[in-house]
Design goal:
There is one protein chain. With about 500 residues, the protein is α/β, with parallel strands linked by helices. It is built from 15 helices and 20 strands. The two termini are about 25 Å apart. It binds ligand BES, manganese (II) ion (MN) and zinc ion (ZN).
Length: about 500
Amino acid sequence: MKISVKTAAPDKLRTGALALTVFDDGKLGRQASRIDRLMAGAIARLMKRGDFTAKEGSTAILYPEAGISAERVVLVGLGKRADLSAERVRLAAGKAAVAARAAGARDLIIAPDGISLAAEELGQALAEGAVLGLYRFLRYKTADENGRKKELGRITVVPDQAAQAAKVLRGVRTGEVIAMSAAMARDLVSAPPADMTPSHIAGIARSLGRKHRLRVQVLDRQKMRRLGMGGLLGVASGSVQPPAFIIVEYRGGGRRPWVALVGKTITFDSGGISIKPGEGMDKMKDDMSGGAAVLGAIGNAAALRLPLNIVALLPATENMPSGSAYKPGDILRTMSGQTIEILNTDAEGRLILADALAYACRYKPAAIVDIATLTGACRIALGQEAAGMLGNNENLKRQVRAAGERSGERVWEMPLWDGYCDQIKSDIADMKNTGGRDGGLITAACLLSKFVQKFPWVHLDIAATAWTDKDRPYTPKGATGFGCRLLTQFLRDYANERGAEGKKGRT
Ligand code: BES
Ligand code: MN
Ligand code: ZN
């Protein structure tokens, strides 16, 4: 997909589809009114009859007979002018691109009108919405029933203010980078677990490292043993696939302190000996969504040359039942020295994260953010509209929340009170790995909190947001890549907030 920015009268450009944005007050913008005039009032007529209301996310397609060079005109609604946001623009761009492709267009011109965002933000939102909306996972399809021929090959953005074109283009480039990483995260999650093994993910981290000059280390079982990573080794003990502890470092921040990103990377979660019911178990390939998001985010940080030092940690393993698997009743000694009594081998994510968080502390990080498909309880609590957020530092929580609002990948805070943490007290070990059904989202975070020492830390539970069963405007059903854009936004804002010292890269 190639996206460019042009300043031209959109009616003169030959294209399969010309998309116009419309607010629901019926007042057409500069570009749309010009097209409407050339089409003898066809757009105004459509709106007057109520066939197109410009409600957010609504679309309509017109086939101009003459007057303009486009084969199709795609109207896309932005809803109320006062409610405009980058998220609305992403939704509209996704809708327009998918509608154009479904109609058979091979290329698309987007002519935004009167959108009161900063020009860069507009460009970024358009690129993200279009690229992510058009995303499909076709790698395992041999026949092209979805029609490889029916891909949209090219998108051109024509801003309504020519003077803004350079800034819009900058935003488009940023949006492309970020969207491609989120698409990579979706690819990793969508791939079958037999292919997306810990070793395979290690290979992907290595090639990402070559592309962006990142330092990549992969620890094998022996090195994990030396470090005392009993949590990760315990979970991995039932699996034929060797586990991997993947460390990716990006050094763009000179002498600044580290930011640590930790992503749960269970390449398949059968539940282990406490095996899950068969129905829906196939979806447990998405249990590495945290790791995928973290990889995408550190790749973005490098591509955008953020002035930060970032380490991404991916504890990667399957969770399988077998004769060698860890069992309920076992007690694991983690890297921090703390012991965990196992009540349920399906609460495995927190065990591998315990070791990864302890490893993160070796960097003396100024911030740790972990992201994990950790609990079914998160879905019960928040559904698919937000990730669960818990942490030990108000400022860091504020920054992550703000990044969530800006990226459209929202988070909602849950309390990490002592009373909840009492639920995981064990009679014979330092803690147990489940705290019962009540407050399951919170008690999981309680366990994690014991492994971050005093470092500022936020935990994100993406169990419900990593996957969607229904198509959304720029998130087709399947893996969402959730967290990649959120973490990237967090890192960009974080780099900005940290001030101008050594600030050379774009943020
Ligand atoms: N990976 C699952 C959580 C999950 C559930 C992710 C549904 C996506 C969709 C996690 O490892 C798990 O199994 N959690 C258990 C914990 C319980 C045994 C305390 C859960 O939530 O049921
Ligand atoms: Mn599990
Ligand atoms: Zn899991």
